[in-house]
Amino acid sequence: LYICFRTVEPLEYYRRFLKENCRPDGRELGEFRATTHFFSSGSITTADGSALVKLGNTTVICGVKAELAPPAADSANKGYIVPNVELPSLCAERFRSGPPGEEAQAASQFIADVIENSQMIVKEDLCIANGKLAWVLYCDIICLDYDGNLLDASVFALLAALKNVQLPSVVINEETGLSEVNLKQKTPLIIRKHPVATSFAIFDDTLLIVDPTAEEEDLATGTVTIVTDEEGRLCSIHKPGGSPLTGAKLQDCITRAITRHKEVKKLIDKVIKSITPK
Question: For the Exoribonuclease phosphorolytic domain, which residue ranges apply (predicted)?
């Protein structure tokens, strides 16, 4: 009977649980899903850095490829960071093969904004020789299994993958003008900030639940993602339409995101320790 009711009236089905301050999967409204296999660094051996993140059933893998290129004329002392989020048809029925859809493009732009606003990587640190040579970091984030909250998982995967990157030493030969790469001498990428995303779904214009599943996102009247760093600084607010939030509700989201960051930071520190060369 309940299965039939859930299929015919999914929103009303959810409301019955929400009235009791819980969800059909047993979680409280402010409870995150289990983060089993949270970080698995070095997942892609052909990449310069990689990580696998599993947030509930949502599974995301990130691979970072580092290449050399001349810097842009108007940014002679800066390198490049090029993020790309892919939502292939294999991760959920709602996605189709072919060019990136609107959701994938929006996610790619979100990641680009997080990188820029948080200053997790300062582009000047990627410059090797002013006006001559710089690193380009291609960050490919691919969703393997989609069950909501793609943005939180993507930011986690990106951060873990970047922490996994070791860049070889590069110098420019003054006589030939060519770059010389020393693969035996590598140094970790400089990560200056550790942004963490915390997403909320808004039900019936007022009720907030954290870490929504795909079903919860579909039934919600809006979503909002808050990105903070380890200093409690607000890096980004992503609110793609939907129900408006009052100032008090938004502040509540920010406060909870800062608390969430402290929890995630313990896991991040554990990852960093595990991937630091002995």
Answer: 39-168, 195-258
